[in-house]
Amino acid sequence: MMNVMAIEGGIPLRGTVRAQGAKNAALPVMAACLLLRGQALMLDNVPNLYDVSTMVELLSTLGVSVDREQPGGRVRLSVPEEVSWEAPESLVRKMRASSLVLGPLLARCGKAALPLPGGCSIGSRPIDLHLKGLVQMGAKIEIRSGVVYAQAGRLRGRRIYLDFPSVGATENLMMAAALAHGETIIENIAREPEIDNLAAVLAGMGVPIEIEGTGCVRIRGVDEVHSASERVIPDRIEASTYILAGVMTGGQITVADVIPAHIDAILARLEEAGARFAVTRNAVTVFPVERLQSVSLKTMPFPGFPTDLQSPMLAALSLASGVSMVEESVFQARFLCADELNRMGANIVIKGNTAVINGVRQLQGASVKATDLRAGAALILAGLAARGQTQVEEMVHVWRGYEAIDEKLRSLGARVRLAGTPAEGEQGA
Ligand code: UD1
After folding, report:
1. Ligand 1 within 6 A of 286 CB?
2. pLDDT at residue 110, rounded to an integer
């Protein structure tokens, strides 16, 4: 894919787009295939994204046969009796979610090596909670030259309390617990819908698993798991990005194939800001409004306002009347798009973990750089609403999480085209 998106702004979007399968569900459920021996995992609705390709490459390197050439985002992961227990550094450095192979590899091989994930531009993102949980389950962990070496006989089911409801730690420990001896109870787990998707895959493989409404999961480990199939849930972040595109351009669009309950937090904030919608069982239609009003919000773990929509929301609130405050409480240093939005005429001031946004009437097109995946989405949104031409550079970040975003926007009437050189190689955090 190309590395620059050129946008002719100011066109109200019209039409219907369908949400892709969720990146953040596809990555852990694909990693879960490593629990299998001589069996296969069939997934539907897997999005065609750089991060998914990185996970495919990682699983292939470990020995899994991946067949992606099927319609409907169908992917078949066939796992041999033996797989490699060493994750290659080049792939892990490309994508933090590579750390999701640690739990399943350790559970099935009794050992695993994982270079510490790097390349994160959105604050410090350690994996200490993943490691602490595995140690509680009986693993011995050593870190030598930036590589985590984990060793265990068979992991033992334990009661684990997560100090923070980390999405990745919850997923890694759930997968590890699937083949552990006895019952694992993890408390204070992440409640993101992607966790339920992973639980469904594990249940399909024959693992007794129960998520309680109180933020606790119980998993009874089994001796071996069997083939399963599951559908990846719709991408609530991608769907919300299109909803914002409709709102910001004063357009009327329908985003289909969404699960409205997954996007309540964003719809509630937008409604408070004066946006208008119709919500059906699996679609959201945005109606045009003159101008949003300012709102204030704080990012939180699910069901709070998702940190992944913080940058896109900054773009939307840049155009609202009044002063909005957005506090980031999940990641540090995630306001990287503010400077770029300001280059387009926004008035955003960062004070510690809070962005203070003085709404302006109009943004102007400019040449801007995506610094990470969601910052890239924010700049595209700003470009769609701005007067004149915007060039978003470093689209390499956007291709990690948005399937065919240029085609989808064009189908809604946007004037966007790709330019520059192919965005290959580097794939960011
Ligand atoms: C996942 C999502 C990402 C989203 C994030 C929060 C995937 C592939 N990625 O990332 O898009 O932004 O959830 O919703 O699903 N932390 C620790 N120690 C740990 C683990 C996490 O301190 O061991 C901290 C992180 O530094 C961060 C916070 O906890 O500040 C949230 O991280 P976590 O929930 O683990 O996010 P990811 O799973 O990396």
Report:
1. no
2. 97
Tell me if 168 CB under 6 Å of ligand 1.
yes
283-287, strands of its sheet edge to edge: 14-18, 252-256, 283-287, 276-279
What pLDDT is attached to residue 421? 82
Residue 395 pLDDT grade (very low, low, confident, very high; cuts 50, 70, 90) = very high
Tens digit of each residue's pLDDT (9 = 90 or more) over 119-131: 444 455 689 999 9
pLDDT of 58 reads 97
What CATH code is carried by the domain that includes residue 171?
Answer: 3.65.10.10
Q: CA–CA distance from 202 to each of 35, 211, 234 (Å)?
A: 9, 12, 19
Q: Which of 212, 231, 250 is the last residue of a domain?
A: 231
Compute, in angstroms, the gap from residue 363 CA to the centroid of ligand 1: 32
Nearest protein CA to atom 20 of ligand 1, as residue: 127
Distance 170 CA to ligand 1 centre (A): 10
* Domain that includes residue 170, residue range: 23-231
Give catalytic status of residue 337 as yes or no. no
